[in-house]
Amino acid sequence: MSKINTEYLQKCIDTVVKSYDFLKKSEVGSIEYEVFRNSLVKGFEMTLEQSGKLLKKKITPFLVSKKAADMLTFKDIFREANKCSLISNEETERWMAYRDNRNTTAHDYGESFAEETLKLIPDFLNDVQSLKKVIDND
Fold this sequence. Notes:
Layout (H helix, E strand, L loop, with lengths): L6 H18 L6 H29 L6 H5 L3 H10 L5 H17 L5 H26 L2
Helix pairs in contact: 1-2, 1-6, 2-4, 2-6, 4-5, 5-6
């Protein structure tokens, strides 16, 4: 299997890290806070999607066929990665929560939703950096 290119995932991670750093330095309620929070939420979404796509590539060799891999939902990809011992049960549960949060984004762009997403960011950053190592590992 050829090496999976994780450059874009790293760029997404870097964007989330920088947006989070800027957000923490901004005054709550300021326009800067709003800009960085919006950036952070969008970065979270993009990083989450990229993580699922790349993990799917990583687990495909473990499955019976590429067709079987193509039929997996986002959550199925992470469940399969857990079965292959690529991620732990705890990580799998957190990835499910990240996806549930992301699905809410599509329907509720309110301030309370954005603040809920912010609470996930520290664990998310740890998990996505760990996942990137798993994907990079041959």
